[in-house]
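can u do me a favor
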């Protein structure tokens, strides 16, 4: 019985300690605009100060926007028809080895009609047998790390940590098309921009002794209570 009560007290103290966790939003650092596939300068954040407490987890919140999208589908089939296709891209925030990347995927879609192939030879991506995509998109992504060894690289009383950024296209996708419609895509272009914000989840140093004090007091009370019960039954 006594062991059961002590176990309950320890569990309660752990709950009290975790209930004191604090969420701290870091600064929002912007990037871009930059063409998809071009280098994006890394961004930097101050390390989490251990004087604040014990870091439990870090979340990277990524927001991205795609503008100036351009992609053309050229029908090289001998019949007119309809087609629907999409331009897919993504921005990736890379914090450190072993830490999950935050990814923001984006897609711009175009549907319409095309004439029969009107040129001889390779596609020229102009005229009634072509269909041009323009437009914009936006997306968000996030990643969370709570593994203590990996969190160590984000903690320090001085210094910064970096977040690398990359952007890329996936292969254009021909979603639907009429029978006889076939062709090729032009080289896609697009501009991306956005921002990254770290979110810190930590237990303040002042909260940890408090839970320990509660546990010690409860355990002391239990010990005194047991002594009194023994004295009464003697």
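np, heres the sequence
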């Amino acid at each position: 019985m006594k062991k059961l009560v002590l176990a309950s007290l320890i569990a309660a103290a752990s709950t009290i300690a975790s209930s004191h966790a604090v969420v701290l939003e870091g600064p929002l650092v912007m990037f871009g605009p930059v063409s998809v596939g071009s280098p994006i300068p890394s961004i930097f954040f101050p390390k989490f100060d251990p004087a604040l407490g014990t870091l439990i987890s870090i979340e990277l919140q990524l927001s991205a926007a795609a503008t100036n999208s351009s992609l053309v589908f050229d029908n090289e089939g001998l019949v007119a028809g309809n087609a629907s296709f999409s331009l897919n891209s993504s921005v990736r925030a890379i914090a450190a080895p072993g830490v999950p990347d935050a990814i923001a995927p984006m897609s711009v879609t175009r549907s319409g009609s095309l004439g029969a192939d009107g040129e001889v030879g390779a596609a020229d991506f102009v005229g009634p047998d072509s269909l041009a995509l323009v437009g914009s998109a936006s997306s968000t992504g996030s990643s969370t790390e709570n593994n203590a060894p990996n969190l160590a690289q984000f903690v320090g009383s001085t210094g910064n940590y970096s977040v690398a950024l990359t952007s890329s296209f996936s292969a254009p996708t021909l979603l639907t098309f009429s029978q006889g419609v076939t062709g090729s895509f032009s080289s896609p272009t697009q501009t991306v921009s956005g921002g990254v914000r770290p979110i810190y989840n930590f237990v303040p140093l002042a909260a940890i002794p408090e839970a320990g004090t509660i546990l010690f007091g409860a355990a002391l009370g239990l010990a005194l209570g047991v002594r009194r019960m023994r004295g009464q039954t003697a």
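The first helix runs from residue 2 to 19. hope that helps!!
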